[in-house]
Write a structure and sequence with these properties.
Elements lengths: L5 H9 L6 H19 L2 H6 L5 E4 L6 H11 L4 E5 L15 H38 L30 H27 L7 E8 L16 H10 L3 E8 H16 L2 H15 L1 E5 L14 H18 L2 E4 L2 E4 L4 E6 L11 H5 L3 E4 L5 H9 L5 H10 L4 E4 L1 H17 L6 H23 L4 E4 L1 H13 L1 H7 L1
Parallel strand pairs: 1-8, 1-9, 2-5, 5-8, 10-11
Antiparallel strand pairs: 3-4, 6-7
Helix pairs in contact: 1-2, 5-6, 5-8, 5-9, 12-14, 13-15, 14-15, 14-16
Bound molecules: adenosine-5'-triphosphate (ATP) and magnesium ion (MG).
Length: about 475
């Protein structure tokens, strides 16, 4: 597996997030440090603690976006949770550990997917063999080993008059087996060529039974651990299903994959990987910092409770899961928060100490907005172009139009609430509100191209910008 260098990580993040270099570098180094530590041997490797990070910055400047993109990059179990969720009724005091369980689940999924990939060829081969048997009516639809050569060898011999010798019999059997194998091979070829794809056959599927709703409580409201446990207790249910051969191939391949995967090994590996490389992104950490005002309120007590629950996990403890114990010492935490009304120093000192790296994200400027509108791989303008292309309209943006939208967004952020780059979404929507609605009719009437200009943008937005109340509502 190729391990990305810090520079490569930053380059990848640059494709989606404009600016915020300090934050990108910090997360890149943190990720790389995991790998470095793994190269160390013995005691020293155990001594090296992860350098947890807090990202601090105003709303809508890319904190969550960095985490989201990072998650896709690193080939490690990566969980994003909102710290504020743990203050909600029913979560507090109970379930901070659930994030470790969730992280492990991600690890298991990851390892199993890798294992599935390794056995993919073999699983497909076996599934095709079973399909051939099914097509020949040799495999009864339930999952038993195919009974080969069901034509009795003796049958064909009774006519020949002479008593067959053992040798004849043997030869005959061999011929028939060979003949049978040729038939199978021909069928297999046709199957692989998609000849039977649309034909329907009957197969057995095993289904996990869902848990019946317990009283007033739906499975969603139950402790996930509890749900898992109950589901584990429910027996699988076998069911006959008529499906197309094409679909059957997928289902049987899945079944064969399951059989080929070593589940115990997968879990062992997943625990190891979760402990050594797992990362948790704790979003909205500021929401659990006791605000400096409102001291002693219930909310404050609840928030401090969550901090206390978090501490052992961040410091390193053992969390019991259904699959085994997970040690959290080496799990990397990246926290983020706007810290509008609270500051990092409002967190418990012990918790602050566990996040030695602080990076500030910058408020975004007009120039950043212009770049955000155009540069990222799936920028808002690219998205808009692609969406309207489906209606047969080609949209182009003049440089002036981009500048105007960036300017208006910055202005709206300054005069109303500063919501960062999120403002661009509403600006774009407003600029396109009519075109989006009329697009199919425009295309029908022969309009092929629309150029978005500076004037057009201003015209669409000025009315709203001038009327503050309207602006607050629309933008
Ligand atoms: N620097 C940036 N470059 C590109 N897009 C950005 C940038 N900052 C924000 N965005 C876009 O703005 C939206 C909101 O950003 P994000 O979710 O990262 O905000 P945040 O910093 O986590 O804010 P909050 O504190 O409110 O959670 C996302 O859709 C993201 O794509
Ligand atoms: Mg966020």
């Amino acid at each position: 597996m190729h391990e990305l260098t810090p520079r490569e990580i930053v380059e990848q993040l640059d494709r989606h997030i404009i600016g915020q270099h300090a934050a990108k570098r910090a997360v890149a180094v943190a990720v790389r440090n995991r790998w470095r530590r793994q190269q160390l041997k013995g005691d020293l490797s155990r001594e090296v603690m992860p350098r947890n990070i807090i990202m601090i910055g105003p709303t809508g400047v890319g904190k969550t976006e960095i985490a989201r993109r990072l998650a896709k990059l690193v080939q490690a179990p990566f969980l994003k949770v909102e710290a504020s969720k743990f203050t909600e009724v029913g979560y507090h005091g109970r379930d901070v550990e659930s994030m470790i369980r969730d992280l492990l689940e991600l690890g298991i999924t990851m390892v199993r997917r890798e294992q599935a990939e390794q056995v993919q060829e073999e699983a497909l081969k076996r599934a095709e063999e079973r399909l051939v048997s099914l097509l020949l009516g040799e495999e009864n639809t339930t999952e038993t080993t195919p009974t080969n050569a069901n034509a009795s060898a003796a049958d064909g011999l009774t006519d020949s008059g002479a008593m067959p010798t053992a040798e004849d019999l043997h030869k005959k059997q061999k011929e028939e087996a060979a003949q049978h194998e040729r038939v199978r091979q021909r069928l297999l070829k046709k199957l692989q060529d998609g000849f039977f794809d649309e034909r329907e056959i009957e197969i057995t599927v095993r289904e996990k039974q869902t848990i019946p709703v317990m009283g007033m409580m739906g499975p969603d409201q139950m402790d996930p651990g509890m749900t898992n446990m109950l589901e584990g207790l429910m027996p699988d249910r076998s069911r006959q299903r008529r499906v197309t051969v094409q679909r059957a191939k997928t289902i049987l391949t899945e079944q064969e994959t399951e059989k080929l995967i070593d589940h115990e090994k997968a879990i062992e590996q997943a625990i190891e990987r979760t402990e050594q490389t797992g990362m948790i992104f704790l979003d909205e950490i500021d929401k659990i910092a006791g605000s400096s005002d409102g001291r002693g309120s219930n909310a404050d007590v609840s928030r401090q409770g969550v901090q206390r629950d978090l501490l052992p996990i961040v410091e390193g403890s053992s969390v019991v899961t259904r699959q085994g114990v997970v040690h959290t010492d080496q799990i990397l935490f990246i926290a983020a928060g706007a810290f509008h009304s609270a500051s990092v120093s409002d967190l418990m000192p012990e918790l602050q100490g566990r996040f030695p790296i602080r990076v500030e994200l910058d408020a975004l400027t007009r120039d950043d907005f212009a770049r955000i509108l155009t540069e990222p791989d799936a920028s808002l303008t690219n998205q808009q172009e692609a969406l309207l292309k489906t209606e047969g309209l080609t949209i182009t943006f003049t440089p002036g139009s981009i500048a105007a939208m960036a300017e208006m967004a910055a202005e709206a952020n300054a005069s109303m609430e500063n919501i960062g780059a999120r403002r661009l979404m509403t600006v774009i929507e407003q600029v396109f509100s009519e075109i989006s609605f009329d697009a199919p009719d425009l295309a029908k009437k022969g309009t092929k191209r629309i150029e978005i200009t500076d004037e057009f943008v201003r015209e669409r937005l000025s009315e709203i910008m001038d009327d503050e109340d309207l602006g607050k509502f629309v933008l």
